[in-house]
Amino acid sequence: MAKKQYSMVIDLHACVGCAACDIACKCENNVPASFSWANHIIETHGTFPNVRYRHIPTLCNHCSNAPCVANCPTTAMHKTDEGITMHDADKCIGCGACRLACPYGVIYYNDAEPHHEWQEEAAAIPNCTAAGSEVSEKCGTALPYYNPARADTLPGVRPKGVVEKCTFCDHRLAHGEEPACVEACPTGARLFGDVNDPRSEPAKAIAKHSPRVLQPEKGTRPNVIYIRDY
Amino acid sequence: MDTEIIYHIQSGPVWDWKVALDLYLGGAGVGALLFAVLMDEKYQGRYRRICHTASWLAPLLILGGLVMIMLKMGHPAQLWQTYLNYNPTSPLWWGGVFQPLLLLGSVVYALRWQGEREQDAGRKWLGRLLTPIAVVVGTYHGLLLAANVSRPLWNTGPTVIAALFGFASTGIAMVLLVHLIRMRVAGRLADEAHVGTFLDNIRFVRNILVAVIVLQLGTLFFWWLSLRYGSLQDQQSLAVATDLYGPMFWWLGIGLGLILPLLLGAFAVMRGEAENRRLQISVIGITSALILIGGFFFRLALVLGGQGELPLNVFS
Amino acid sequence: MMTRTASPQQSTLESAMSRRRFLQTSAGLSLLAAAGGSPLLSFFAQGAPFQDAAAGPLGKWISSTCQGCTTWCPVQIRVVDGRAIAVRGNPHSKANHGQICPRPHLALQQLYDPDRIKVPMKRTNPKKGRNEDPKFVPITWDEAMGLIADKMMELRADDETHKFVLFRGRYSYMRDIIYSAMPKIFGSPNGISHSAICAEAEKFGAYYTEGFWDYRDYDLENTHYILCWGADPVSSNRQVPHAMSMWGKVSDQATVVVVDPRLSASAAKADEWLPVIPGEDGALAVAMAHVILTEGLWNRDFVGDFTDGANHFTPGEVIDETLFTENRTNGLVKWWNIELKDRSPEWAADVCGIPAEQIRRVAIGFAKAAPRAISWLSPGASMQARGGYAAMATHALNGLVGSSDHVGGVVQKTKVPADTVPDYSEYQDDISKHNSKQPKMDRRGSLEFPAMNAGKSGGGVVTNNAADSILNDDPYDIRVAIVYWANFAFSCSGSDRWERALSKLPFMAHVTTHASETSHFADIVLPAAHHMFEKWSFLKSKQNLYGYSTLTERVVEPMWDVRQDETEVPWLLAEKLAERGFDNMLRYFKEQFADPETGQHPSNSAEFAMTAVKQFTRACWDQTHPDHGKYGDALNGWQDFAKKGVWNSHRFKCGKVREAFKTSTGKFEFYSETLKTALTAHADKHGTTPDGVLEATNYTARGELAFVPHYEPALRWGAEAEYPLIFFEHRSRLNREGRSANCPWYQTHKNADPGDENWADVLKMNPVDAKRLGLTSGDRVKVTSPIGSIEVDLKLWEGVRPGTVTKCYGQGHWAYGRVAALDYQKRVPRGGNNNQILPAEYERLSGSTARHGGVVRVKVEHA
Questions:
Q1: Which domains does chain C have, with CATH numbers?
Q2: Hey, which of B22, C363, C662, C818 would disulfide with C291, CB 3.0 to 4.6 Å?
Q3: Interface probe, candidates A11, A21, A34, A48, chain C, greatest C C-beta count within 10 A
Q4: What are the pLDDT digits (tens) for C665-720?
């Protein structure tokens, strides 16, 4: 039997461009507000009134031929047995080679302490309204909606000096849950599973529709695959 | 309006002037080392003093480069992970392994140039041993950029070749300039006989320098051609880089760093430099300085320009 | 299960997991434990029964409801260590398919917003105004409620209790305690709702055609054509998650056409975009009706036919009414003769800016797909100064093609059983009884404000006029106000009037989560429990042909000293009034409310909140209730309801309603006898004629036109010469009713609204206009209307009609928090509030605020 390769098929026809995936991802993975593990490309084409608009959700493509993995000097960026492009913050030296290598801009670098807004002590109205530090202290976590499950396989919050990116929610897969963006998608546009298993949702979708990937000419062999059009 | 594409990713260049300086210093260090080795092979230690300068410049410059790249790292404390793990597809892994190795080797090599001995078989052998490592490190500085498939400006063969020519020119220029300064400090520039011998016998070096510059110009022209008439992405990447760093690249990197030194050299020859040692010295000093200044801006423009945001192709 | 590449640093996954988790959460746990008897921990010890299915090894999913828009979706919240960390759709909900839109996720950042009010605040600067610092100081709930009670007792002493007003904003169905019982027992008629600033005009359309004063439901699963009138179903208004989850299937099987001057999220995915000139939707609708009739495409079964079987609808020609026999409709030929015969697509093209052939194509496509077709009316096409008739015209298309109450068409609703406040008349004393009958302060029912809710003159609210009532002491001077979950100084058009009115109010208390624009003028600010996470209440709504009753629950113990607005606040007030000698309200609360399970009467505010929600929702879960299980789910007791969080009705069955519409004629009315009766009654009340009413309400129609859906030219403020561009606003898929701009996630994802930019509040302009004005993207521009101006960033965009400019509603806060405002301390807004340039104009027949339809013209220049 073929090796497992987790894949995500995104049905652009079903997608309505709501960004629930983007937000749910931030929530699930304790991602700083300014980073977008789950992201989107917006394309507006044409002239009034013949205007065409596309919203294309993006995330780490978990490439089979991942340039970030190839370029990482410490193997902090690596492929798992299930085809996930995974990052090990304990090995990361923060050199940026992966970010330069990636054609998709999906790797983010923590150039400052993340979630610093939860350490701020000033209040808008002194003694009457709260402050970031007060909220996080009461919660006892780095950020109030901190998800401890994320810490199963990555630092719950990635420290300053290392990179971070989508992991296909490997920590959720371990509990039999789908990635957060898949669960959050209200349109069912995201199909997740082992693409090497012909019975899986993504394999079936790929067989039925003509699949496309972003920047195929880069030879990265992405495992985030798009079907139909927005 | 034709097509507007919005895609917000983390903005700003990943690699900045520190990496440009690493490429620059590391390259010049490799050049200086190879200069000493070459001189030792050709003149059998007759120009001990300039080789001595070169041999000490090498570890200093290589160290400088390493410090720069360390400063760029977010988590240098975990650098040892490089040595626990093996990733031959990563130029930075090769660099991480071989640049410190070259640093150590070049220190030992420099120590062998201490003292007054002209001939030293051990030094020669060490030089020969270090040569392939130096070439690897020099090549690595080109591959570091060229290995990025997502950066069309860098992702070319000429990028690597230009890096090799670059380390040769800046290495030689660095040695010449520093040695001139050293001679001046030591008061030897007033010693006509000494200067005469020096000048007569570095003609070989100057020939190499001229050849390197000409080849570098040819390489860059080829590089420009391949981008300018390459794929759409190549053209876009060239346009984006030119738009942002064109003046720095063309005026400082090429004009100041390559063409002007050539012209100055030709000018000196025409003005009969053989008879005018003062002029000769000045031209060597000035051209070396120009090559060094230009060499830095060439790399800075290349490093920054290669990271410009390209128009995104969406299922084109 | 999960495997990972081996590395020397990692032992097994499990141990790595436990180590890290321990390290990162132990601080929190020990902190809570140190607090000693922390309510957080104890609550979750007791709260366990309410948890739904386990959420995997981490945390529990607890049910509640999102009130970020008026869909009111059943949701579940993942709670770990007493913290809310994630939100999902409630899997027990049939209406939203267990799905949610982006809004509920944002709510987490509202709950934990560092700018939330922690404790009651008292104003110490008596001067009120935008540029006055209120100098708020913290006080206790006891003090705060005492101060409010003092002011209210003064009114009783002066026999002026009607000069108390309760302004209601975002509410739950606990509302009648604070909105109805509390003012009436105290002695005021003034429960003033926010309803009319948002949607009443669209109910006008359905009511005066098919007798249904409510939002419609849509059978998306079976439809073949959707014609959206300003509606943006995948983004905003109602039924958003249902529409989102169905839209892929809908686009497969149906043609989708969106009428909107802006390329909305739905327009971006539609088969056709009809960028109508703002406010001219009515012309498009009547032209489509004209095409449907002239092409002979009306639904014979529903509407009827010519007795001779021929089609006599010849453009421009009057028809003998007797030639046509109607089935389930009333007045088709009258409509044709009075209005439609001359409304050709060619005529409409000039008026509404849509090419005639496109009008014809869409009308024919719609009619041919019918009756599995939907003409989807929204606030955009009805909340216009003359939008009442546009609402009727667009909805009447459903009558023409027989899609009203038909499979794949537009339907009404199922019954969702619930109880409300017990009778309180015995607790009203003479003052209460007398003063509660005083005219309401918003002047509803006056000649120029008919506000005919369900046909009754003055039956609806004229929310936005309340500011003028306060400013003009008309009908009387308001002395004390309580405002809850409303921010009229921001959310009402002509917001400057509210700033002046609130400055003038002698005493106002504001119940809110954030120090908003309205709080800025308050004497007392009371920190409110967040409805989705901290409040016990229930809501009724519908989607996907299912009605439902859904609970909001206290899923986490509040971090701050907050109270539940609709239950605890009136209770606490009742206690203070009782202390001051007026105990009727407290007695009512104590005697008339009792826990249905234990029979126990509440003894404090928290018990009251819990008791009331159980009492009101008994029909859903209490087997002893006569309605239990009759209309839908038969839940097994309160615990079951609290755990599931939602009660689903049976699925709506089409075909019953059309047998007897609740109109005067019992038919679907193209000639509205229902409206004729209502207008005539209102005219009689004021000694005038329906024509007199139309004149007073800014309509141009006279005579018989008043009773049929017809075209009315758009009403706009500002002369074209001075203000060359038509301004219109639109909604955001991230707006939680204008309350989410302080959430960083709102700002970082704002470009999910087509044409918008992250961390900005852009005015969108067509490049053609920008070129003419010498402007470009990124320019800082001043947008000036006849009533005010704002400064925002400009964005050139092809998705907006030339000659118009548009901006999203929801930003431009100069208060609310340090993200929403660019400089909170200096009151510098991020972006600009549309309501500073939109005039206080009305669709007066329904009392609605006319915020749409390009009601104002603007000029745009470099700032």
A1: 124-198+427-528+564-592 (3.40.50.740), 215-411+659-672 (3.40.228.10), 725-862 (2.40.40.20)
A2: C363
A3: A48
A4: 999 999 999 999 999 999 999 999 999 999 999 999 999 999 999 999 999 999 99
C645 by DSSP, 3-state: which?
coil
For chain C, the residue count is 863
Residue ranges covered by each domain of chain B:
21-147, 164-310
pLDDT tens digits along B148-174: 999 999 999 999 999 999 999 999 999
Question: Angle at CA B98, nearest 5°, toward B74 and B134?
Answer: 125
Q: What is C341-398 written as a DSSP string?
A: GG--HHHHHHHHS--HHHHHHHHHHHHHHTTSEEEEE-GGGTSSTTHHHHHHHHHHHH
User: Which residues in chain A have Cβ-Cβ distances shorter than 8 Å to C748?
Assistant: 33-34, 36
β-strands C763-765, C804-808 pairing: antiparallel
Reported ipTM: 0.98
Closest CA to A22 of C814, C748, C494, B140: C748
Whether A33 contacts chain B with CB within 8 A? no
Per CB-CB distance under 8 Å, the chain B contacts of A78 are: none
Cβ within 8 Å, pair A109-B15: no
* Chain C residues inside the 8 Å CB shell of B8: 751, 758
Work out the pLDDT band at C49, boundaries 50, 70, 90.
very low
C178 pLDDT above the threshold of 70: yes
Is cis: bond before A49, omega within 30 of 0?
Answer: yes
Which residues in chain A have their CB less than 8 angstroms from residue B313's CB? Answer: 215
Q: Is residue A27 part of a domain?
A: yes
Output the pLDDT for position B316.
66
A119 belongs to a structural domain: no
Given the structure tokens 């709080």, which residue do they identify? C519
Distance of alpha carbon A53 from alpha carbon C268, whole angstroms? 6
Interface of B with A (CB under 8 A): 1-10, 14-15, 69, 72-76, 78-79, 81-82, 84-87, 89-93, 95-96, 147-151, 231, 233, 307, 312-315
Task: Return the amino acid letter for C15.
Answer: S
The H or E element spanning position C210 is helix C200-210
Terminal Cα-to-Cα distance of chain C (whole angstroms) = 60
Condensed to tens digits (0 to 9), the pLDDT of residues B91-115 reads 999 999 999 999 999 999 999 999 8
Are B123 and B88 a contacting pair, CB within 8 Å? no
Q: Do residues A216 and A24 make contact, with C-beta atoms less than 8 angstroms apart?
A: no
pTM: 0.93
Integer distance in angstroms from the first to the last C-alpha of chain B?
18
> pLDDT tens digits for C408-459?
999 999 999 999 999 999 999 999 999 999 999 999 999 999 999 989 999 9
Range of the domain at A86: 6-111+148-227
DSSP letter for each residue of A91-158: T-----HHHHH-TT---EE--S-TTGGGG----SSTTTB--HHHHHHHHTSSSTT--GGGGGTS-SSP
Q: How far is residue C131's CA from residue C143's CA, in Å, rounded to a whole number?
A: 27
Mutate to test the interface with A, among B150, B232, B316 (most CBs of A within 10 A): B150
Cis amide prior to C345 (ω within 30 degrees) = no
The CATH superfamily of B21-147 is Formate dehydrogenase/DMSO reductase domain (1.20.1630.10)
DSSP 3-state of C517: coil
For the segment C184-193, what is each residue's pLDDT rounded down to a tens digit?
A: 999 999 999 9
Total count of domains within chain A:
1
A206 within a domain of the structure (yes/no): yes
Length, in residues, of chain A? 230
**Is A124 a member of any domain?**
no
